[in-house]
Amino acid sequence: MNLHGKHLIAGQALAAQAPSFTGVVAASGQPLAPGFSEATAEEVDQALTAAAAAAEEFARTGRKHRSDFLQRIAAEIEALGEPLLARAHEETGLPLARLTGERARTCGQLRLFAEVVREGSWMEARIDPALPERKPLPRPDIRRLLQPLGPVVVFGASNFPLAFSVAGGDTASALATGNPVVVKGHPAHPGTSEMVAVAINRAAAAAKLPPGVFSLLQGKSPETSLRLVRHPLAEAVGFTGSHTAGRALFDAAAQRPRPIPVSAEMSSLNPVFVLAGALAERGPALAEELKNSFTLGVGQFCTKPGLVFGVKSPAWEAFAAAVGGLAQKVAAGVMLHPGIAAGFQRGVAGVSGVEWLAQGTAPVARVTSEVFRARPELAHEIFGPFTLLVTAKDEADLAALARALDGQLTATLQGNAADLAAAGGLVALLEKHSGRLIVNGWPTGVEVCPAMHHGGPYPATSDSRFTSVGTAALERFVRPICYQNFPEDLLPVPLRNRNTLGILRLVNGQFTRDDVT
Amino acid sequence: MNLHGKHLIAGQALAAQAPSFTGVVAASGQPLAPGFSEATAEEVDQALTAAAAAAEEFARTGRKHRSDFLQRIAAEIEALGEPLLARAHEETGLPLARLTGERARTCGQLRLFAEVVREGSWMEARIDPALPERKPLPRPDIRRLLQPLGPVVVFGASNFPLAFSVAGGDTASALATGNPVVVKGHPAHPGTSEMVAVAINRAAAAAKLPPGVFSLLQGKSPETSLRLVRHPLAEAVGFTGSHTAGRALFDAAAQRPRPIPVSAEMSSLNPVFVLAGALAERGPALAEELKNSFTLGVGQFCTKPGLVFGVKSPAWEAFAAAVGGLAQKVAAGVMLHPGIAAGFQRGVAGVSGVEWLAQGTAPVARVTSEVFRARPELAHEIFGPFTLLVTAKDEADLAALARALDGQLTATLQGNAADLAAAGGLVALLEKHSGRLIVNGWPTGVEVCPAMHHGGPYPATSDSRFTSVGTAALERFVRPICYQNFPEDLLPVPLRNRNTLGILRLVNGQFTRDDVT
After folding, report:
1. I need a labelling partner for A168 at 20 to 30 A (CA). Which of A431, B13, B440, B488 fits?
2. What's the complex ipTM?
3. pTM of the shown model
């Protein structure tokens, strides 16, 4: 596949500006052909205008049609074959094995959402039939269905060039629920973005959908991103990335004359609490597992454990020493982008007044709880293979540390049976600050399934009520519409008396798949 | 019941400041004893600190306990008897019959939510059991449940002193889902607010709940409202009222260091489209019904039809004349507050360059579509018994008017069978801008039921994905928490293998009430 370096606006390869940036080989910083252009204000407008024009037709596609479209996107991505993985490997430095897995996850996610769309119960059809005899007033017939919001602006993330990028979870969620998508590609992997966008366009054409259903804009200027969020035709935003960028988009969306919802997944330290019994029973194994988790993917996961809490004890000392020893031996990894590598170096260089347990490619530091409390900058995410151990004085001090946490995507407990039997209080504290609690596992590795919640109190995400992973991610881009006293023919099909789709509906407050009689 | 005029902070009657305002007789503006004090910054802090302290215990109350609490609130409100209605009547001017109905709605809503809480499926329990043999990687056990957000700040609305005030839909939604509530009472009915707050406190004491679960603060300064929204312990906001006030609260919440979600229901014109067949078949009846709807409750409903569209024709002329004639004869009503009455007069006085069809207590104006487009101020809500007819040139012009609408709570079609058979395109346009579509009915009158959606695109509400009426209103104040690899004993009861609650759960992507085996 020859890369053209242009935007893909409603199926057309266009670029008004001259190329101004390229992808680079992650390992070396060496530029990769072709050049890519910054999207202009007019191109932003073109993409969103086309998306808005496609919105109504796309919203009305039947479930089989839309489900087939998602399946087709997965097939077209797979049909790109090895060249996609090769380009992604060059641009991100991620190993081919990892990218193969990420492609499987991306396509698996599209297929899972396709299944959810085909099944149809996600629309939450609700029917309260008329009660003409009710006193003092009759009740009209009232029916409700989730419907798409309209054009969704999606920002590709650097650390998952497939699964959280052009055809990642945000795009899949928005398309599954009938919303056109305008993706702003991440400038660290523009070639990968273009290839995946071509696959989506092929699928849209095969499904005979209006081409405005999908556009990809390239660019690296924050102004382009803000322009997309501020565009009057944008209806929602999906983002995964840094707190700084996410907050800027959130603020821009909130300050619009007509604010729009932002689903931003931003920043998490993913604290791990290592309890005494676990330390005693399997301290060395835990040290190994922690090292594996915080260095997985060169530490470039939003779920990387960046804070590890334990109570001062000989076992904790041994654990700390073991983590340091293992981390010291970690081989250098290639980070996603020279800029990210430089940011990591700066972040680690800024950590001072700590005890260094390892200082190689995977640095590990330790502080006492007093120092940790006195230096709030230690509780800011450093993106990359770094973790900080915090030594609590006693159990009460450990609980106080849990209580003072910022919002997190995850929190983890390592404990033996006795630890866990006594951990109810700690769990309650961690529930307050976290979206996902893990026992005797590690936060890296996020399942795509109905029960997953990948979200958490701010700053982990901009709205803790929504997830960006799992089938519940669809809920972000829909709103209910209520139909009162509608004649059967004018009702959306899922709300008609005969439940021809066989979906689960809430009728008179009871869940049923029966027809309304 | 003797009113003390103080705040009710975690069960205590307190007021640091001297009284600075009173309720007034709505009809006359005459002050009503006692005086009420503005809540101080310290009192705001006290209430939210107590709420936060109560949050964990309240979140853990079992479903029966919490359900009984809601039932008890309803019973305690009813036990206040006639004095509550008498005070509300004095403070708001609303007729006793209306207030009796509103009390029934308020208590019915509490009891409906109590039933939903007792049934338990609202928690959306999801379970994806472990797949230890899965390749390439095993799946851990993942379970997910909706949990409360924490302290919710609720603002009482002027126009429903019971159903959207201290124990109204926002409070009921928040308490039902296990969130402590701090209400800022509306200054137009402080006595009514105090009485209902006492009822809630009695119910909390009877249920042996921590007193911080509910507080009422009085005040009329916007600064007090902003202080509540900005308080670090506030986790969410519920508001019904004007666009100006709602937007100010939304902005304050979005600008916090840690933004919190705001559910604000603000402004809606509730357009009505009167189609040709309906005009021909029942023009006079429609004129009567429109007059009844826009003057119901002296036009003080968020669902008041404030815009009526029709195509130029002799029948439309006759309809307009009939509406004007009927409106001219409407008797003067008492508005909620002298300030609201004055605001209505100012709003109507600002309407110029229109044809007046009625100019009495229920003014009706008319403009052509050209004038309507040229003067965007005509599409701003005037709170009170006023409506504006807009004459379209033809069907295409009518569609163009529908297309250009702002976000609305409701949109209504009046049509005969032939009109409706051809109305698919118009429905599609109205879906884009509205939360509830009504055929051959009127928007005033909002059912409290599972299928109701009382929300809509901005400026109707701050987030179109949520409703403030109906059982789905509970969704505003909860967030999912995911439990990964938890031992059975440490899991919340609704997520354990044995479905002892008998709730509907999503297990392996299938809805079931079965145990997990």
Report:
1. A431
2. 0.97
3. 0.98
